[in-house]
Amino acid sequence: MARGAVIHAAATVTLERLSKSFDGATRAVDAVSLSIAAGEFFALLGPSGCGKTTTLRMIAGFETPDEGHVLVGGADITEMPVHKRNMGMIFQSYALFPHRTVAENVAFGLRMRGLASRDIEARVAEALRQVALAGLEDRRPAQLSGGQQQRVALARALVVRPPVLLCDEPLGALDRKLRQSMQFELKQLQKHLGVTLIFVTHDQEEAMAMSDRIAVMNAGRIDQLGTPAEIYGRPRTRFVADFIGEINLFDGEWSGGAFRLADGRAVPANGSGRAGRGAIAVRPERMRFCSTAAATLTGRIETANYLGGQTIYRIAADGGQKILVKEASAASTVRCLGTVVGVEWSAADAIVLED
Q1: Which of 47, 48, 68, 157 has the most CB atoms around it within 10 Å of its CB?
Q2: Alpha-carbon separation of residue 250 from 28, 229, 285, 323, 351 (angstroms)
Q3: Which stretches of 92-244 are assigned E, i.e. beta strand?
Q4: Are 342 and 292 in contact (CB under 8 A)?
Q5: Residue pair 257/271 in contact by the 8 Å Cβ criterion
Q6: pLDDT tens, 207-220?
Q7: C-alpha dist (Å) from residue 171 to 11, 88, 180, 187
Q8: pTM score > 0.85 for this model?
């Protein structure tokens, strides 16, 4: 994308015990509190129904909280109407006016704000340069590709120079290759402009690739908040471990600092001071093949999926559990299905999960 000269005056966003119910009983959002720094790319990540879109809509003003407060730049905007919040918003459907040209779509927010025609023309031209759409001003949405329509929606949101940009699954309608390209471009443009961006998605890879920090939501609450590396490398709960990427989960019991599976065998894990039932998790890339004599677990290879740089194996362990192991494809030829193998990992690679 092209780069303009205008840098947005980014704002902090703070949520204080924000709650929302729709049926009077089940809370879609349950006492969510978090602080988003000015200029941060922040993702609300979770499955359908977890409360992420409702949270975004309360920030935007489309939904009124039952409890709690929304602050932008330190000012409480909880009761402020949508049109006074000065936020940019991008939807998955783009929400473009089909009968208006690209330029007219981008100019809509400026006309609603009563800017002079000369200023509108200059601002629209600048926004279209920023999203690499200069020269397409007179086309209508039906004459554009999906990626170009997404850029029009982005330009329309940015042209008002909002301190906060809200994105609700904005790349969901794009094919995989274009989506990955737009992820990179949106991230680059956000950093250049300095705008605070809050991004709702259910796609873990998308959140990991783009965000400075991620809030993983589950049943209306934040299960874990952290950087992509923290969320992936050290998930705290079983939900986060299972939702983010591929992982091996082991249930068992802590006894004398050792973690034992249901069959009584001890496996590597650091759990000093723990006792009773618990769970650990190990990422597939942290699992290593070894001799069956020295193995933590043994099993038989059921599937081997070759992915170029890596091969992912699914192994049926002797205890009945399915185990995933990722191995660099260059390390060896693809192992044969049905082969009995040994698997090990280090205690440092075992993630101890909270209850």
Answers
A1: 157
A2: 30, 22, 16, 10, 10
A3: 164-168, 196-201, 213-218, 221-226
A4: yes
A5: yes
A6: 999 999 999 999 99
A7: 24, 16, 9, 12
A8: yes
